Each structure stands twice: as C-alpha cells, then as structure tokens.
C-alpha cells in the first residue's frame, strides 16, 4: 500500500464519531458536564482530519481502502477523491460549528438528561455523513443513509415546540418510503450484475451489455426517486419546510447545510459512477429532466419563499430553490456545469448555515420567527442582524460574496451549452431571492416606525460560530479557486 | 399506507412494503436444489451447489435497520398520543 498510515484516514473519519456516539452516553451517565467537551473534541478532530485528507489527496491522488483482507470488489471498499475531501470538510466543519453553537442554544431549551442524547445523536449523524460520503459500496451507502435518517428524524423531534413531533413523523413516513425505494433499486442492480461495488457494477453493465434492459432502467428510476425524497429535490420537498420551521435552529443549519447536500452528492455520485454520463444523458434523458426540474424548482421555491411569513420556512423554501441550482449544474452535463453546481452546493451550505445560526440567535433571545416582527431588529440586535445581512447578500449572490462566482459560473456554463433560457431563470430566481431577503433587511434596519426598542445583549458564544461562517462566505468569495481546485480533477474523471 | 387514517396502521403498511422487498432479496439468492451455504470441515467447496448467502446477509442488516426505524416511529406515535390524545390523522392538523 502506498502512502502508508495516511491510507487509514478515510475509515477513521467514520469510526471515530461512531465510537464517540456510543461513548457519550456512557460518559454522560457519570460526568454530565464533560459530554460537551468530548463532542467538541471529536468533531474538531474529524474536521482537522478531513482537511489533512484533502491535502494528502491533492498531493498523492485518490485513496482506495478496503476493510477485509481480500481485494475489492469482494471486499467492502472505501474511496476518497478530491470531491469526497471537499464534502467531508464541509460536513464535518458544519457539524463542529453546530456542536459549538448548541452548547448555549440548548441550555434552557431541553432538560439536562436529553442533552447527552442530543450530542450522541449528532455524532451518530456525523459518522453516517462521513460513511455515505466515502462509501464506494452501494449497500454500505444504504446503511449509512438509514443511520443518517434515523438520527435526523430524532433530532428534528427534539424541540420545545410540540408540533415538531408531527413534522418529524411526516418526515419519517416520507423518508422511509424513500429508503425502501432505494433498497429495491439496489436489489434490481444486484440481480443483474451480482455485485455491490459501485465501479464493479459499472463495468459489468457495460460488459454484459444490459444497459437497455428493464431491471437496470427500473433500478435507475427507483434510486433517483428514493434519493430525491431525501435530498428534497423539487417535487418531493414537502417534508423540508415543515421540519425546519419546528426543529431547533442548529439542527436546521446542520440539516440544510450538510444532510441534504450529502444526499444530493450521493445521488450524483451513484448516477455518474454506476450509470455514467453517456447513459443518463443519451439512453435515458435524465439530465434533461433534471434541467427542467431545476428550472421549476429555482423559480417556484423562491416564489414560495417570498410569500412565507415564518423566517425559518422562508429559509427552507430558499433551500429548495438553491438545490435547483446544484441540479442545474449537473443537468447541463459539462465539466464546467458540474464544477459550478458543486461550488454552489458548497457556498450555499455555508451561507445557509450562517443564516440559520443568525435566526437562531434572534429566536433564542426574543422568540420571534414571524417576518413582520423583525421590525427594528437591527437596532435591537445589531451584530446578529449585520451577520444575517452579510450572509443574506451571500445567498443572493452579490460580489464579492461566494455565491456570486458560482451563480456566474452556472450562468456561463448554461450559456456555453446553448441553454440560454436558464440564464434568464437564474436571473429571475436571483431577483426573487433578493426580494425576500432585502425585505427582511429593510424591515430590520431601515424601518420608519417610531417604536421604542431596547438593545438586547447578544450571547458571544452564539455570535462566534455565526461570525466564522459569515466570514467564510466572504473568504470563499475571494478565494473561490480553493473549492474549485478540488472539484475540477473530479469533473474530468467522472464526466 | 395511504388509505389508512390511524398512524399505527399507516406504519404497518410500511412494514408490509419493506417485508416484500426483503423477500425479493431472498429470492435472488436462492436456486433450485441448492443447499444452505454452511462450510463443513473437510468438505469440498463447490459454489454451484450452495445458495448465495450474500442477499441474506444484506437482508439481516436491512431488517435491523427497519426495526430501528419502526422503534423510532412507535416512540414518536406514543409522544403524539400523549400530546394530542388521538392517533387519527383527520383530528390532528399538520399530519398527512
């Protein structure tokens, strides 16, 4: 094995949080106070290891690792390339900040006994996120997705609002149907190819010339539908606004930043590795379908967001439209589109997490979620609302924030492929995004009502993670070449 | 799953659906006249005469996962009953 000890990093990213998830309840039984320390340390370790992984991959190329003594395809394979490293950094970073943010946020919201469970579940979530990101074996990805879903159903249900249980149950019903469809799709693939390894399935589909057979087509449909539910792709997004408006803000940030994006990543990875771009663009016009779905999602999602009165629902519908952008990049089907789509995924995750964190501070101090009550919020909580405004501008995509470059690249990629109509769709969607964010900003800073407002003390432990993510929006606006340099080698390989 | 109004019945519907997928997987592994894949000592290994054990292994994992999902669902249903006093979806706003 080349690379020696560094080859073990991908599997450690999975094992460490999973072990920690089971250690936290044990530790919490004896010393309740130390559970938070252990959670922060573990997630920081995973975050730093993923950055290290990125450096190693840039230097030495992709890492393939297998667990039992036999070589793949017989063994369970773990595979890490540039895109994997980018997704791992994004997910573990967001989880780290969420845990950091959670400490003050949940202090008065949930009883001490539940806090241990809360941190344990977040670690289960982190472990399974890493699991599905590095997995190269379709059944292992399924198991990872299921652990991820089970922990996220529970985390959404942990809330002080009583309707949270209902939205968690709705999410559970829809999510389990999605997983069942995905499992059935795996079954059809296994019947035809007799293997579960992603690359091996791809070679056998080509060798046996079964690309046009009914089971393979069925499996494609089942896998796409199953994972679309989980990644809230437009027509199957119903669970998301309900779940986000009721769940705790850090969980919303984690869910919209990491979970949904990881699911989307898994869907695109499976489509490109197993079926290949030729198959999904020519044999089955899936990319064309994605193009239109994304166009509709971008406009309808933003329109819905304009008409929401609840801030968290507004952000959830905004996520629906931003996922449309990522799909558009994939649907264009060129190297540039792919890179631009994933760059937007990265940028959107950071900005949306910062927005949810900022809204979380407002909810924490005042309990306000209705858009109308944000009147004069800029005078009441100046730092929070400034951070909110910067991330909102990043979401809209004004230069020099990060989304400007990804949106620009997306527009360029679609124009490059002759899809001019999508340039207009991007512009309209951006204008709608600006409409609902600037309405809030105007209301909170430039309101003309002469309401007497008292300044609230903003907790510094909640401000720090929000500020770091907001600054990251600006940093990646100037240094957008950093994520892009991780995307381009993969775009060349996968497409 | 769609027609029933009671939450528990809805979930029973889901469990039936999952079971059918499990059975589908089990069928993949079986073949006519195959014996169970147990390796005896001093026994010649011939893959032709064994049933494929991999689908069964996959399904035992999937069963465990479904048990987990069902447990979560039942826990949520208990909570819903405690909070709202009913399990009928018509009586609770916000449930499909």
Chain-wise SSE layout:
The complex is a heterodimer of chains A (495) and B (96).
Chain A (H helix, E strand, L loop, with lengths): L8 H22 L3 H27 L2 E4 L10 E4 L1 H24 L6 H23 L3 H20 L6 H30 L4 H10 L6 H17 L8 H8 L2 H35 L2 H21 L4 H22 L2 H32 L10 H4 L1 H15 L5 H15 L3 H26 L14 H19 L2 H14 L1
Antiparallel strand pairs in A: 1-2
Chain B lengths: L6 H23 L24 H31 L12
Structure notes:
The complex is a heterodimer of chains A (about 500) and B (about 100). The mean pLDDT of chain A is about 85. Chain A has a two-stranded antiparallel sheet with strand order 1-2. Chain A is globular, with a radius of gyration of 22 Å. In chain A, about 80% of the residues lie in helices and about 0% in strands. With about 500 residues, chain A is mainly alpha-helical. Chain A has 19 helices and 2 strands. Chain B has one domain. Chain B has about 100 residues and is an all-alpha fold. At the A-B interface, helix 5 and helix 6 of A face helix 1 and helix 2 of B.
């Amino acid at each position: 094995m080349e690379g020696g000890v560094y080859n073990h990093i991908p599997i450690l990213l999975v094992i460490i949080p999973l072990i920690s998830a089971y250690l936290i309840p044990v530790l919490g039984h004896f010393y309740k106070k130390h559970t938070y320390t252990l959670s922060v340390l573990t997630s920081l370790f995973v975050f730093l290891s993923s950055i290290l992984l990125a450096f190693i991959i840039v230097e030495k190329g992709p890492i393939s690792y297998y667990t039992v003594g036999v070589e793949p395809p017989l063994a369970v394979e773990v595979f890490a390339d540039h895109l994997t490293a980018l997704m791992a950094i994004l997910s573990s970073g967001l989880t780290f900040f969420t845990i950091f943010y959670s400490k003050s946020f949940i202090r008065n919201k949930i009883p001490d006994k539940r806090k241990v469970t809360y941190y344990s579940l977040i670690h289960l979530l982190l472990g399974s996120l890493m699991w599905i990101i590095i997995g190269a074996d379709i059944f292992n990805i399924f198991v990872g997705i299921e652990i991820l879903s089970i922990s996220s159903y529970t985390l959404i249900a942990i809330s002080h609002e009583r309707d949270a249980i209902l939205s968690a149950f709705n999410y559970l019903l829809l999510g389990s149907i999605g997983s069942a469809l995905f499992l059935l799709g795996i079954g059809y693939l296994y019947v035809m190819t007799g293997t579960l390894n992603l690359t091996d399935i791809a070679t056998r589909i080509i060798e046996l010339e079964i690309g046009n057979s009914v089971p393979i087509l069925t499996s494609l449909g089942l896998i796409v539908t199953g994972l679309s539910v989980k990644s809230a792709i437009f027509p199957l997004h119903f669970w998301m606004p309900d779940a986000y408006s009721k769940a705790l803000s850090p969980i919303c940030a984690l869910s919209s930043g990491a979970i949904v994006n990881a699911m989307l990543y898994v869907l695109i990875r499976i489509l490109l590795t197993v079926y290949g771009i030729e198959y999904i663009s020519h044999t089955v016009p899936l990319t064309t379908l994605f193009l239109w779905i994304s166009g509709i999602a971008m406009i309808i999602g933003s329109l819905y967001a304009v008409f929401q009165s609840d801030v968290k629902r507004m952000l959830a519908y905004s996520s629906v439209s931003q996922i449309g952008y990522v799909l558009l990049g994939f649907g264009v089907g060129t190297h540039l589109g792919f890179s631009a789509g994933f760059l937007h995924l990265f940028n959107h995750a950071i900005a949306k997490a910062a927005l949810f964190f900022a809204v979380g501070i407002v909810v924490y101090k005042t309990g306000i979620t209705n858009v109308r009550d944000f009147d004069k919020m800029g005078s009441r909580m100046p730092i929070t609302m400034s951070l909110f405004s910067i991330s909102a501008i990043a979401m809209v995509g004004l230069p020099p924030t990060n989304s400007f470059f990804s949106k620009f690249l997306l527009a360029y990629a679609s124009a490059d492929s002759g899809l001019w109509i999508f340039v207009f769709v991007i512009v309209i969607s951006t204008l709608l995004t600006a409409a609902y964010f600037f309405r809030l900003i105007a209301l909170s800073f430039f309101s003309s009502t002469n309401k007497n407002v008292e300044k609230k003390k903003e907790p510094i432990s909640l401000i720090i993670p929000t500020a770091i993510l907001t600054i990251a929006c600006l940093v990646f606006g100037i240094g957008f070449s950093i994520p892009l340099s991780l995307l381009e080698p993969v775009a060349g390989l996968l497409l | 799953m769609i027609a029933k109004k009671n939450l528990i019945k809805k979930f029973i519907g889901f469990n039936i659906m999952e079971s059918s997928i499990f059975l589908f997987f089990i069928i993949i592994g079986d073949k006519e006249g195959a014996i169970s894949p147990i390796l005896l000592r001093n026994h010649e290994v011939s893959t032709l005469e064994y049933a494929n054990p991999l689908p069964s292994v996959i399904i035992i994992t999937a069963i465990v996962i479904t048990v987990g999902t069902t447990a979560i669902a039942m826990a949520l249903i208990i909570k819903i009953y405690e909070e709202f006093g009913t399990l009928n979806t018509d009586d609770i706003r916000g449930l499909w």
